[in-house]
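Sanity check

After download, print the first record. It should look like this:
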Amino acid sequence: ELLNLPYRSDRDLSEDDFAAMAKALAAKGPQGVILTGIHEGPYIGNFIYDQGKMSWVRAKKVGGDRSGTGDVFTAIVSASVVRGESLEQAVQKASDFICRVMAYTEELDLPHNAGLAFEEYLTTLR
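Expected C-alpha cells:
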C-alpha cells in the first residue's frame, strides 16, 4: 500500500521489481530500505537498498512464521545502524541472530504464537 501497487506474491517478483520498489520507497525520504521475508526456495531473503547501492542478505529458512520475528529483526537492525554499522552489516547480524534463535525455538517445540526464545542469545549480539 505504501506505493499504491496491487499485491503480488514475492514469488512472482523479480530482482528488478524489488529494486524498483526499494528505489520508490527511498524517494519518499529514507536513505535506506530493507524489503524483508522474501521467499527463495529454502532461503529467506532481504533486499537492501542503501543510498543507491543494492545487495541481498539470505538465510536458510528455519521453522515457520512466528510472532515477534519482525520486531526482533527491526530492533537489531536499528541498534546496529545507530552503533555505526552499515545497513548490510546490520541486516546480516539480524538475519544470523533470527536463524540461530529460530533453530533453538524449534528445538524447544514452542507454539508459534509464543514467539521466539531469544533471551539466551542476547549476549551474542555485539
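If your output differs, re-run the checksum step. Summary of this record's structure: DSSP finds three helices and three strands in the chain.
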